[in-house]
Amino acid sequence: MIKGENIILRHVKEQDLDWLIEVLNDLSLRGDYLRTTLKSPHEIRKGFKETGFASAQNELFIITDLSGNRIGTINHFLTVPYSTSKELGYSIYGEHGKGYATEAVKLVRDYLFSSTELNRVEIKAHVENIGSQRAALKNGFQHEGTLKGIMLVKGKYIDTHVYGMVREDWNALS
Asked: 165: Cβ–Cβ under 8 A, 6 or more apart, which residues?
């Protein structure tokens, strides 16, 4: 468990699976910036049974408020097989504008740099997703460029900004 000032990050528990299946498959919660591909409840349960959604390649955390109410998810995953870089992906369900995503990004960024030999963390944000871009910038990530037509969202290929941080930049934050 990783405790912040306003949130707690914890691994997925079996009692979270129904909630996780619901939020991952409720397209209205995805907003305008996430893929609209549904996730098979069977595959979600199978993934939990096999790894608990925690491995060297991918780790999923539930974001809760300090009272334990689930408010979102954040995960880190290998960007490409030949790299040690990790990408962060996060979603807040219904509690937007309270800084939860920004704090979750900081907690996972610090966790990764302080507990692994990882040298790079990145975030990709839809070009219109100002909240996600702010979360990256507030945590010291640098805008590195824009990827054209990288993801299909609601039938349209969208562009995303890439934000990155290397260990040297993280060390300079201290």
From this structure: 109, 120, 121, 122, 139, 140, 141, 142
The span from the CA of 27 to the CA of 22, in Å, is 10
Residue with tokens 């890439």: 162
User: Closest Cα partner for 158 from 58, 76, 36?
Assistant: 36
Q: The tokens of 147 are what? A: 């990827």
3-state SS assignment for residue 48:
helix
For residue 162 the two structure tokens come to 């890439």
Instruction: From 91, 84, 95, select the one nearest 117 (Cα to Cα).
Output: 84
Given CATH 3.40.630.30, say whether it is the number of domain 2-173. yes
pLDDT tens series, the chain, 174 aa: 999 999 999 999 999 999 999 988 877 766 666 666 778 899 999 999 999 999 988 999 999 999 999 999 999 999 888 888 999 999 998 778 889 999 999 999 999 999 999 999 999 999 999 999 999 999 999 999 999 998 888 888 989 999 999 999 999 987
